[in-house]
Amino acid sequence: MQHLTEEQLVSHYYHDGDAAFAEEHLAVCEECRTQFETLRKVLGLVDQLPIPERGDAYGDEVWTRLRWKLGSNRRRSAYGWMAIAAALIVAFVGGMFWHARSQQPAPSIVAHNAPAPAAQPAAIASASKDRLLLVVVSDHLDSSERMLLELSNADAKHPLDVSSESKRAGELVASNRIYRQTATRRGETRIASLLSDLEPVLVELSHAGSTLSPDELAALQKRIDSKGLLFKVRVVSAQVSGHEAPATVPQKGMDSL
Amino acid sequence: MEMTTDLAVVSRARSGDADAFRQLVERHSKPMFRVAYRMTGNEHDADDVVQETFLRAYRQLQHFEERANFGTWLHRIAVNCSLDLLRARSRADRHYGGDPESAELAGAAAARTDAQQDRLLMSADLQKHVAAAMERLSGNERTAFVLRHFEGMPVEEIGKTLGIQVNAAKHTIFRAVRKLRESLEPIVRSTPCNT
B166 lies in which domain range? Predict the structure, then answer.
């Protein structure tokens, strides 16, 4: 009697093959029955492999992480618009200068009759700098928020490996200082104030080394919480993102991703 | 209150409603994690696959055909994302020599004594050995096996997903089962009741 092949046994297990033929053979062939039983047990063992549980909040967690990625796509596109806008501004300012120079017969006349063209490029340049500040601060706040969120959500009962966060915080401290000083100089008190609150937390994290003990983590979480830092970062980040967006008609909903 | 159907929510998401997309993410994350985990065998990889699945889905939402089932469509994206990850990992393993520990773990099971195997069945070690046996499968073998065994996908569909002929898909499943059997049969044979 010809036995069932391995392939036939597998097919029969998955109800892919000729079920009647296989059943008929298994009924009379003990060897094949044993083989089939072993196969069934092996695959039964695979069935027992547990899948890690994900809580009810998992979807929410996925969304929280995901919206940043969707947001960064949008931001990249905003950068594209900014680059085009910056090129147009440069071309426009250059054109203004060229036009002013070609129209001016003598420098003395300019002093009396044409103060406006000089003031206009300055105003444009100033607006451009403001916008640039908003773009870089927006990105900085995004990175900071991600870090604060991870710290806030970490389980304070266990030590937390922060080796990569610590390194990143060191980089953020440096840029935070520059943006804070620039914001202060340009009178952006709201942004400057937030960056002032953010700085000590970033400094602490940058000095944390590779691991935060449960006590250190709890203290840091308390600090973030007591200052409502995460909330403030989110609010200012949203406002700044709103300002940096190019002047197009907003599409409902998706733009806020 | 009756839950809004996926189709209605997808329709809102397509017209630019972020909350609608969020609803889809919340609704489908857990099932996507399950398939991603079975495919990748790694919790963190599975989380990454879930992220990537929704990211791709978001970008391709305009191409989703309304007559299709959103869960099935998403499931296919998750499978493709997992497959991409497995293939990338396989390339990296070839380049860097792989993880010898997990590769040898399955083979080591066969060399254990019966007494050790009895203990194995009572411990979490067994899970590690089954996981290691799954690790021995190539990306295509693992995908084909998971799709057939856990997801109940027909062989024709598996072929399409892997971009291979039906017969090749069938043989990929056979190879996967054979490898699992080679790794796990010694454990199975040593105990009368294990399922």
Answer: 99-195
On whether any CB of chain A is under 8 Å from the CB of B25, the answer is yes
pLDDT of residue A198: 87
Q: Given a cut of 70, is residue A112 above it in pLDDT?
A: no
Same domain (yes/no): A94, A137: yes
- HSE-up (13 A, CA, CB side) for residue B83: 18
Whether B6 and B89 map to the same domain: the answer is yes
H/E run at residue A211: strand A211-212
Dihedral sign for Cα atoms in the order A187, A190, A196, A198: negative
pLDDT in tens, B119-143: 444 457 788 888 889 989 988 999 9
Count of the separate structural domains present in chain B: 2
Best A54, A60, A74 member to test B by mutation, with max B CBs in 10 Å, is: A54
What integer is the mean pLDDT of B64-93?
84
The residue from B98, B129, B144 where one domain ends is B98
| Range name among A191-205, B22-36, B60-74, B106-120 with the lowest pLDDT average | B106-120
Residues B29, A62: C-beta atoms closer than 8 Å: yes
ipTM given for this complex = 0.77
Q: Considering chain B, what percentage of its residues have pLDDT values greater than 90?
A: 42
- The C-alpha angle B54, A242, A143, rounded to 5 degrees, equals 55
* List of chain B residues whose C-beta atoms are within 8 Å of the C-beta of residue A254: 16-18, 21
Residue ranges of B 45-64 with Cβ closer than 8 A to chain A: 50-51, 54-55, 58
Poorest-pLDDT segment among A87-91, A209-213, B10-14, B47-51: A87-91
Closest CA to B127 of A104, A118, A54, A51: A51
What is the per-residue pLDDT for A113? Answer: 44
Residues B110 and B72 in one domain: no
| Alpha carbon separation from A141 to A173, A195, A199, B141 (Å, rounded) | 12, 9, 12, 44
Q: Indicate the number of domains in chain A.
A: 2
Please give the average per-residue pLDDT across B145-153, as a whole number.
Answer: 92
Query: Could you tell me which of B135, B129, B10 has the C-alpha nearest to residue B60?
Result: B10
Q: Are residues B64 and B103 in the same domain?
A: no
Query: Domain check: are A32 and A80 in the same one?
Result: no
Choose one of B67, B83, B98: the last residue of a domain. B98
> How many angstroms separate the CA atoms of A156 and A151, rounded?
9
Element housing A83 (H / E): helix A58-103
**Residue A224 structural domain:** 75-256
- What is the tens place of the pLDDT at every residue in A163-174? 778 888 888 888
